[in-house]
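User: I'm curious whether this sequence folds into something compact or stays loose and floppy. Could you predict its structure so I can see for myself?
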Amino acid sequence: MIEFFTANLPIVLCFVIGVGLLVAEVFMPGFGVAGISGIVLEVISIVLTYGKYGGLAALGLTVVILAVIGITISVSLRSVTKGRLSKSPIILKDRETTAEGYIATADMDVFTGKEGESTTVLRPSGMAEVDGIRLNVVSEGEYIPKGTKVRVIRVDGARVVVRSIQ
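Assistant: Here's the prediction. I'll summarize afterward.
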């Protein structure tokens, strides 16, 4: 048994390190060095297996790699949500809720129904001054020239929708 592992040490090392790097990539933002290195190591282990044992063994190793990666990542993600890893400082537990005083966007509802003047051309977005405050606004789709009187008809989150006043 020892001879089997020593003869296949490069294949086994590429396989194990590649799986480890792919699992580490799951917990890193973006697709970076760990993910690419893990994929390259898995491909190298398949190529080495093909060179030493043939196509059927390489196909079998490919199936094993996919199964092991799937099982390992699902177990890791389960551990993150309910297991030991969920108590780790690597997992963010803080939340920014309104109950704790966090505000995602400024409350723009106070401008509903107010009148102002467009300070730039609105096609359909631009700037308008309402109650002495410059706002990023959006028209209902029509072109509104600069200097036109506008009324705020609704506010959708941070989106202020205006209509020209005739």
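Summary: Residues 48 and 54 are 9 Å apart (CA to CA). The helical segments are 2-7, 9-26, 33-53, 55-82.
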